[in-house]
């Protein structure tokens, strides 16, 4: 498989792989996963390594062939020695651009994660120096505050449980326990009107014209076109008594109506 290492590094990886009974190709697969995880975590996939699996510094190991204890022992030895070789310089760590390429999906300001991977339809990237965890699901990225948890990687989960859990210095912690501090829009959704615009009802011009517009009471009373003046004065008095007309307004209207008699 293609790797970002020099020929000398590839030979060193192959030699370590051979010591544990694996081919150079299987060793490179593990080394690529370790480089992506910053040397502290690896999510790998190779037939010789038991299929899909996950390793993290400190002892956690899961492989697809979960009941093959002998294979587990060899995979653990391979991962441990490759990680050690990367730390002490026996194998040169690839440049970030060579290791990650164009696969970055988290905010650029977070930098390079110490570990990343995917599980149950979700991708994650861990940034311990910034105490941040990025999660991507269905095109939407959320950023979580890891607080005092120095996360190494995700816990291997079986079944359909969609709630991710992570291993760290303080033990296991569920994603649901890490507060979300930022969320990006769903990348699959097209831009739409703002909430303010969507929340305000609007009517077509024809309907707006049909909306009743109550006339001001003063305007209605100022020009009674018909009716008995005495009856209108009684109505004005009722409006005055109800507090809808002042005494001066009542007097003016009363004078106008009496002038018609």
TrEMBL record:
<protein>
    <submittedName>
        <fullName>SHOCT domain-containing protein</fullName>
    </submittedName>
</protein>
<feature type="compositionally biased region" description="Low complexity">
    <location>
        <begin position="111"/>
        <end position="122"/>
    </location>
</feature>
<feature type="region of interest" description="Disordered">
    <location>
        <begin position="184"/>
        <end position="227"/>
    </location>
</feature>
<feature type="region of interest" description="Disordered">
    <location>
        <begin position="90"/>
        <end position="131"/>
    </location>
</feature>
<feature type="compositionally biased region" description="Low complexity">
    <location>
        <begin position="216"/>
        <end position="226"/>
    </location>
</feature>
């Amino acid at each position: 498989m293609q790797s970002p290492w020099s020929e000398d590094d590839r030979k060193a990886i192959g030699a370590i792989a051979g010591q544990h009974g694996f081919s150079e190709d299987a060793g490179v697969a593990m080394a690529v996963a370790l480089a992506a995880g910053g040397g502290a975590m690896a999510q790998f996939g190779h037939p010789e390594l038991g299929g899909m699996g996950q390793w993290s510094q400190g002892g956690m190991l899961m492989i697809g062939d979960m009941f093959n204890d002998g294979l587990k022992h060899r995979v653990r030895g391979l991962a441990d020695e490759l990680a050690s070789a990367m730390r002490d310089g026996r194998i040169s760590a690839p440049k970030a651009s060579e290791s990650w390429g164009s696969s970055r999906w988290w905010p650029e300001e977070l930098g390079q994660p110490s570990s990343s991977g995917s599980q149950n339809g979700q991708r994650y990237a861990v940034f311990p120096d910034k105490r941040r965890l990025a999660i991507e699901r269905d095109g939407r990225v959320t950023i979580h505050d890891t607080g005092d948890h120095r996360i190494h990687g995700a816990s291997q989960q079986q079944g359909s449980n969609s709630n991710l859990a992570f291993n760290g210095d303080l033990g296991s912690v569920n994603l649901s326990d890490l507060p979300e501090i930022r969320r990006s829009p769903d990348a699959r959704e097209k831009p739409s009107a703002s909430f303010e615009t969507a929340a305000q009802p609007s009517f077509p011009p024809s309907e707006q014209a049909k909306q009743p517009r109550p006339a001001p009471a003063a305007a209605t009373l100022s020009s009674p076109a018909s009716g008995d003046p005495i009856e209108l004065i009684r109505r004005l008095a009722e409006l005055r008594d109800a507090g809808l007309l002042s005494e001066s307004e009542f007097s003016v209207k009363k004078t106008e109506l009496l002038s018609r008699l």
